[in-house]
């Protein structure tokens, strides 16, 4: 039996109860990897009940027991590294380079989370009443619902699952339909192999139309963690808010690299290529727009295109491939619509443009304005747009003129001035003399505006996945004025 054709509920691999199927396709070859019988609301109910039953016992385990299991998880991940990487290549179209980066990021999250059981600090506060102390405890929220994405499926799902468990919660994962294994079932298998208690991690693979809303509004999960599009995130936020449920939402981005006239152009161009085309640009942090001072615009474009022309694209399993396939044909068609309309409006394609199935050649446009569809919308594909700015004030204005505010980049030889400009841009993250795709397990990750709510990683994850409880302790008895 292939466990990845099953649901993982209460520590058992079971068939879904829906009449519908999820067909898992290889985006490069178009071949079917496997078919999964979907979960329905009955399966979802069983998963949430299993998580609810497993959570209290897990929360009561000692720090040593929890950290011991996390160490086993690390050992299992390292032993299964090549297996995980092969799945990322075949299911998500990840190149070998990107798969390795993703594995290392996920491993970093698990290692950071392993420290959380010793970092759930409370406090004792004085009281205005005699002989009383106020004890503040940090405790798990309970059951966490995790909805995984398809772009960095393994890392971005683990980014919620590992901290949630480390802080004493249990989880139910709903993987992305395009990557049901790497954003869910594979994670369930790893926790099972590491010996975590049954029911602590559950995975339900199902269509959003059948279990999506119910996953969010179900009364058991106390928090819904979602990584994905702003459109879906807004719907999740509305449903959760209506039910007074907390959320952690990491959504879309339209990230800009500002290249000032004093920038090191060769270094900026190298960073630009990596930050744009890693995983075909299908990263929420990917660089969409390159806003370049007019004095160095042409020099930057020439250097950038020269580097892009050297990129190998094609089979993601080949070690030298840097740009693999886009996840599905619907995404290719969406990108092509924005590309064609922007060219109609005056943008000039100066490199690339070939499309074959889900494979898109790295493409570069210039003469782009900030209001063209390819600049205004999140691209999520291997298309780079260069926008000419009259000066740094206009560059900052262009960068900030987006409903998104996730990440960004500024290249300048004056690092202090770069920081001053970065403070003017409404974004959760921004990097001086580096590209925008950065994620460190101990550093807060998240965005502003339509890029989401909350922060992941480190102490910010502890804050998100726990709640606080006030217990007032009276030594002796209070005198009450009515007696």
From TrEMBL:
The active site is at 250. GO terms for molecular function: oxidoreductase activity, acting on the aldehyde or oxo group of donors, NAD or NADP as acceptor. It is an enzyme of class 1 (oxidoreductase). Residues 13-471 form the Aldehyde dehydrogenase domain. It comes from the Bacteria. Keywords: NAD, Oxidoreductase. Its EC number is 1.2.1.97. It catalyses: (2S)-3-sulfolactaldehyde + NAD(+) + H2O = (2S)-3-sulfolactate + NADH + 2 H(+). Belongs to the aldehyde dehydrogenase family. Part of the sulfo-TAL (or sulfo-SFT) pathway, a D-sulfoquinovose degradation pathway that produces sulfolactate (SL). Catalyzes the oxidation of 3-sulfolactaldehyde (SLA) to sulfolactate (SL). PANTHER family: BENZALDEHYDE DEHYDROGENASE YFMT (PTHR42986:SF1). This is 3-sulfolactaldehyde dehydrogenase. It comes from Edaphobacillus lindanitolerans. The lineage of its organism: Bacteria, Bacillati, Bacillota, Bacilli, Bacillales.
């Amino acid at each position: 039996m292939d466990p990845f054709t099953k649901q993982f509920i209460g520590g058992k691999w079971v068939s879904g109860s829906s009449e519908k199927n999820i067909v898992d396709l290889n985006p490069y070859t178009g071949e079917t990897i496997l078919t999964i019988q979907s979960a329905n609301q009955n399966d979802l109910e069983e998963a949430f009940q299993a998580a609810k039953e497993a959570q209290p016992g897990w929360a009561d385990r000692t720090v040593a027991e929890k950290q011991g299991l996390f160490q086993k998880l690390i050992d299992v991940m390292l032993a299964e590294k090549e297996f995980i990487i092969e799945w990322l290549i075949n299911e998500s179209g990840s190149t070998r380079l990107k798969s390795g980066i993703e594995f290392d990021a996920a491993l970093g999250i698990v290692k950071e989370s392993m420290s959380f059981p010793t970092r759930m600090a409370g406090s004792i506060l004085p009281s205005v009443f005699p002989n009383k102390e106020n004890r503040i405890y940090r405790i798990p929220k309970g059951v966490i619902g995790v909805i995984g994405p398809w772009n960095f499926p393994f890392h971005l799902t683990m980014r919620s699952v590992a901290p949630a468990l480390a802080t004493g919660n249990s989880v139910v994962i709903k993987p992305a339909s395009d990557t049901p294994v790497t954003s869910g079932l594979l994670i369930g298998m790893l926790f099972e192999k590491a010996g975590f208690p049954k029911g602590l991690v559950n995975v339900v693979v199902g269509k959003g139309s059948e279990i999506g809303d119910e996953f969010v509004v179900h009364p058991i999960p106390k928090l819904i963690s979602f990584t994905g599009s702003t459109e879906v995130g807004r719907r999740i936020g509305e449903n959760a808010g209506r039910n007074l449920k907390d959320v952690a939402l990491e959504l879309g981005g339209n990230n800009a690299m500002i290249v000032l006239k004093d920038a090191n152009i060769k270094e900026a161009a190298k960073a630009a290529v990596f930050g744009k085309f890693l995983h075909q640009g299908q990263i929420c942090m990917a660089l969409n727009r390159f806003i370049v001072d007019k004095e160095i615009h042409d020099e930057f474009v020439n250097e950038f295109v020269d580097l892009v022309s050297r990129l190998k694209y094609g089979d993601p399993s080949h070690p030298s491939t840097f740009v693999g396939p886009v996840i599905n044909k619907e995404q290719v068609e969406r990108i092509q619509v924005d590309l064609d309309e922007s060219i109609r409006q005056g943008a000039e394609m100066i490199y690339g443009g070939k499309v074959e199935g889900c494979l898109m050649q790295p493409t570069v446009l210039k003469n782009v304005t900030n209001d063209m569809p390819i600049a205004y919308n999140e691209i999520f594909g291997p298309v780079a747009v260069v926008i000419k700015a009259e000066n740094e004030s206009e560059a900052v204005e262009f960068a900030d003129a987006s409903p998104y505010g996730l990440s960004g980049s500024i290249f300048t030889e004056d690092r202090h001035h770069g920081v001053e400009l970065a403070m003017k841009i409404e974004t959760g993250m921004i990097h001086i003399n580096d590209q925008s795709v950065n994620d460190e397990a101990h550093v807060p990750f998240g965005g502003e505006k339509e890029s989401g709510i909350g922060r992941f990683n480190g102490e910010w994850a502890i804050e998100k996945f726990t709640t606080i409880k006030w217990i007032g302790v009276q030594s002796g008895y209070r005198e009450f004025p009515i007696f």
